Amino acid sequence: MAFILALLALAATSLAKDVYFNKHPVLWENADILIWTPDAQSPVDPRELCLSLKRNNSGAGEPKCRLFGEWERDSVAMHYARWLQKNMDPALDEEYLHIRHPALMAKVQSLEDNIVLYLAESGDNINVAIFDETSTNPKVAGSIAKKTDKVALADKIASTFFSGKTKRRLSKEERQKLQDEPDDLYQEVPKFRAWAGVAFGYSQAHIPLTPYTWYKSHVESEVRNYRITKDSVSLWNFIDDSDPLLNAYLGGIWYGFIGLELQYRFAKHRVKTDDDDPVYDELDHWDFYQHEIGLNALFSRTYNIKSWLDISLLLILGFQYSFFVEDIALNDDVKEPSRAYKVRIRFEEAYKGGVIGGAAQFIFKKHYGLGIRTGISTRGRDMYVDPTPEAAAAPTIIGGSTIDWFVGLGLEYHWSL
Known about the structure:
By secondary structure, the protein is of the alpha+beta class. 20% of the residues lie in helices and 40% in strands. The chain is built from 9 helices and 16 strands. It has helices at 2-18, 46-56, 69-72, 75-87, 102-109, 150-161, 172-180, 216-219, 339-342, and strands spanning 19-22, 27-28, 32-36, 64-67, 115-122, 125-131, 140-145, 166-167, 192-204, 243-254, 258-270, 283-306, 309-330, 351-364, 368-380, 401-416. Helix 2 (46-56) crosses helix 6. The longest helix is centred in the first third of the chain and has 17 residues, at 2-18. The protein is rod-shaped, with a radius of gyration of 37 Å.
């Protein structure tokens, strides 16, 4: 058994040395094989090569083999052929053997479904390369030992470089139709692409990569006697900043570049009451429901990764209005609330603010999306007004500047018009 494994390993190593790289060109049934060589005489007989192809590959059909005299009489082609003869090496990838002259590149691209078989003597070996219309790099490269037996040499070339599965050769009409069709990664940018989504996420006052000391006085503040805090600049002095959020949105992009999005955000925040303050003994719960409605401007770039996957990156710039709805209740046994309860803190009816952020949409099969978005959201009121005689009596503006960072993961449905 060990002896058999050793033989198999030796055979695999030998084959690996024969073929330097193989980018799997299409092997056509009933192919036209054009033999191209810089040598004075072709190392292989075209007739024997065709017979070997039929013997070694049952799908070869009736191949036709001939010397490629057109290229052998072309000075540009022969200059490259001699350069390839000297520079082909097992350590080199196909891009290092790239055809650079525009005239020869054009000849390769006009081969249609013909296969060019390059053969060149190099010491005791014969360098082999295969070209087709799909690339100006060799599709296959390798070498085989030189043989005086023309039949054995043709069999070796056929078994080493033409052993793959063949495809039916296309008619001229079929080839033209295939050229007119877009490839798998091509997609015409639709005039308008729309989506609807629901995301679940999280928000907090602390913006990542910034010092916590910027937010410490706000997030660690507590409310005493229903209204007393360190300051009232931020709503986070009164309510929890770190809470889950729900985000629903409807948006669209024109021509894959610019768009708009309508969004709604919801979160529930608990008031940070001081547990040591006996005034709250009467309190059952005290929360605020956050409702936000906003309109975002979008700037997009879409990448076609696979035929079934597109990735769209979004820059989000928007404005929003925030509403905080109070939910408060006393214990069932409390008949009359305290005076502090009656004069408790009141938020503004509405806050206006902005949003800046980014998003990535992973779109599967053009319709089903997974969205990731993050950014910074602001809300507040104008705290600075012209002084008036009644300014001292004016109530303090609550939440004049409230900022949070958010992140969310959403499920989306996409469609195009």
